[in-house]
Amino acid sequence: MNANDSQKFLSGSVVAVIVPVGVPTPYDYQVGEVPVQIGSIVRVPLGSRSVWGVVWSAGSADLEASRVKVIAEVSDAPPLCPVARSFIDWVSAYTLSAPGLVMKMAIPVREALDEQKGVSVVKRAPPHPSWRLTVGRQRVIEAIERVPPMGVTDLARESGVGPAVVRQMIAANMLVLEQTSHPAKFRPPDLDRPGPVLSEDQTRAAAALCQAVTSEFSVTLLDGVTGSGKTEVYFEAVARAAKDQGQVLVLLPEIALSAQWLERFLRRFGVPPAVWHSDLTPALRRDTWRCIASGEARVVVGARSALFLPFPNLRLIVVDEEHDGAFKQEDGVCYNARDMAVVRAKLGEIPVVLASATPSLETLVNVSAGKYAA
Q1: Euclidean distance between CA atoms 209 and 234, whole angstroms
Q2: Residue 77: which of 33, 117, 35, 41 has the closest Cα?
Q3: Is the Cβ–Cβ distance between 344 and 205 less than 8 Å?
Q4: Residue 146: enclosing H or E segment and its boundaries?
C-alpha cells in the first residue's frame, strides 16, 4: 500500500476526485467537515446535479480551497483499495477510456453508497427446558442455524411459517430482536467440508492449483473434456484461497450461471455463493456490492462485470469457459474479461485459473510460449 493511501485529508484540503463521466482527468474539490482519504467514495456537485466519485489523489497545489466546490457527502462504504484503483487506471489507459467510466463499473450501484440504516434481526435465545417446540417453531430454530441473521418476515419465509409464529417466539423469549447496522447476508463457506473423491489425474491437477494459491502471480490453464470434473478440481483451490478471510472470484459466461453450477457449489461448501449478474434485483445488487466491498462475501460467482467489483482481499480468480465470447464487452468500455482477469491478478500478485474444454487460441499460444502453466 502506498504511504499516501492512509493519509487523511482534513477540512479545507483540496483533493482530486474521479467522477463517472467521460472526461480524461479528475476534478478538484474541497474537503468538508468529514475527513477523506485516497479511495474514499464521495458525493460531489457536478454542474446542476450531484454524483458519486472517488478521491484519487491530492488536488492541485496552486488552487485555493475557497475557489473550488465542497464535497457534499462521504459514503460509509469502504474506500477502494490500492489494487482496485490501479486496475481502474490500467484498464482506462489500455482501452483509451475515461477513468470515470471505468470507475463507474466498480461502483455501479448508487444505492449501495447511501448510509446504511439500522435494522432489526432475529437471533436465537439460550435454550430453556420450558420451551414448547411445535413443528413450526422447530422449523424456525432450524432456519436460524442455516441462514444469516434476518428480519421477522424474511425468517418466516425461510422457515415456511407465518410471521405470527416468529413473533410469538419473540414474545415467549425463545427468540430475541437485535439492532444491527449491517446484517450479514452471506454465510462463510464450509472450507473443510469434504468434496467428492477425485481421480489420480484430478488430484494432481488440484494439488498444482492449490500450490499456485500459496504463491504469487501465475496463470494456469485447466484443460479437460466436458464432464471431466474441472469444476470439482478448481473448487479445491477455491477452498484453499478462501481461508483466512480470503476472497475468490469465479467468472462464468452469464448463460452458464445455471442452477446446476450453483447446486454443485452448495453441495461442496454447504452454502450458496454470492452471485453477480444483470438479473439481480436492485436491493440484492446493493446488498451484494456492500458485502463484496466489506470482504463479507468470501466467494463470488459472476458474469464479466464482476471483475471490476472492489474486492479488498482477493486471493484467486477463476475464469470458467475462458474461451467463451460472452467475456467480451463491445459497448462502452470495450474489454475481454478473460484478459483483464489476468491483469487484475498480476496487479494483485495472485493466481488466476483459466478453465475450458476447448481453450482459446490465445491461451494455447501463451501456454506454448511458457507464459501460462497447464
Answers
A1: 7
A2: 41
A3: no
A4: helix 135-146
Which three cell numbers mark 90?
Answer: 490500467
What pTM value is reported for the model? 0.82
CA distances from 279 to 6, 152, 260, 283 (A): 36, 26, 17, 12
Q: In DSSP terms, which residues pair with 91 in a beta bridge?
A: none
Encode pLDDT of 49-84 as tens digits. 999 999 999 998 787 777 899 999 999 999 999 999
For residue 76, give the 3-state DSSP assignment. Answer: coil
CA atoms in the 13 A half-sphere facing the CB of 355: 24
Beta strands in 125-242 (DSSP E): 175-180, 218-223
Q: Over the stretch 267-278, which tens digit does the pLDDT of each residue have?
A: 999 999 999 988
How far is it, in rounded angstroms, from Cα 167 to Cα 175?
Answer: 9
* Helix, strand, coil abundance in the chain, percent, nearest 5: 40, 20, 40
**E strands, 185-230, in order:** 218-223
**Which amino acid belongs to residue 9?**
F
Angle of helix 82-95 versus helix 337-348 axis, rounded to 10: 140
